[in-house]
Amino acid sequence: MTRRHVTFDCEGSLCAGTLDEAPGSTGLLIVSGGNELRSGAWNGQALLAARLAAAGIAVFRFDRRGVGDSEGANGGFRSSTADIGAALAAFRSEAPQITRVFAFGNCDGASALMLSQGMGCDVLVLSNPWTIESDGEEAPPPAAVRAHYAQRLKDPRSLLRVLTGKVSLSGLFASLRSALKPSPPPSSLAQEVAAGLARFNGPVTILLAGRDRTAQVFEAGWNKTDPRVQRCPGATHSYVESQDWLFEQVVGATKG
Question: Where is pLDDT greater, at 105 or 149?
């Protein structure tokens, strides 16, 4: 496996990308979330890229404008459609043997792919899509609170903590009151990403980390019977403890 660093143009700004080469005709484009560098949290995206390349799948990662090694102004995920399109074009140019590209995005990287209707990719793997409107801390949705306490009630140690006074009863009752509230309607962003995804005609896999607040908020406003959703109950936002599960889901999507 060979890793190469490349540059490409996006509307006059010089952007940085990294290509993990592989001989196969299928390639993965990784779209980072937030202001995260192309290496990913805890170097997770770089490690995933190396593992996929060893399995015969070329991987292209990039910093959008204004992030990491890329020039230009950072307009956020809502303004990243051009960045995704330019990165995809660079990927196809640098790896001309690729005939099929699937994209993986986590957090608002997933939302960016949904808003851009896949931006010319053939398959989408969307992880913990960001659907929170406010910049502040989002309260957990009632459905997530109910799921949390249902899980806790299965653990004898949690019940023992309550009985021995190690849990604040006032806090517990406040959380239970929250759990009884009806789920709020989907945010306008949630409706936008749903509309964008509806215009994408290729296969889609939606990955949700069970311990992630972003995933919980997304799931609260999403179709609970959507067969495209795959859940990893013990995972956190970046799948630090669930790398094997993430790898298997991404590889599985290439065969869909």
Answer: 105
Reported as type and span, the H/E element at residue 142 is: helix 142-152
Span 21-60, pLDDT tens digits: 999 999 999 999 999 999 999 999 999 999 999 999 999 9
| Full set of structural domains in the chain with CATH | 3-136+185-254 (3.40.50.1820), 142-179 (no CATH)
C-alpha distances out from residue 202 to 50, 215, 254, Å: 25, 22, 12
Q: Where are the beta strands (DSSP E) in the chain?
A: 3-10, 13-20, 26-31, 58-62, 100-106, 123-127, 204-209, 229-232
- Amino acid identity of residue 45, one-letter, is Q
- Tell the residue number behind the tokens 């406040």, with chain if given: 174
d(CA 11, CA 147): 45
Angstrom distance (rounded) from CA 186 to CA 224: 13
Q: Report the distance separating Cα 246 and Cα 229, nearest Å.
A: 13
- Confidence at residue 235, expressed as pLDDT on a 0 to 100 scale: 96
| Contact by Cβ (8 Å): 18, 61 | yes
pTM: 0.84
Q: How confident is the model at residue 143 (pLDDT cuts 50, 70, 90)?
A: low
- Determine contact, residues 119/113, Cβ cutoff 8 Å: yes
In our burial notation (b when 16+ CB lie closer than 10 A, e otherwise), range 101-140 reads bbbbbbbbbbbbbbbbbbbebbbbbbbbbbbbeeeeeeeb
Distance CA 59, CA 206 (A): 19
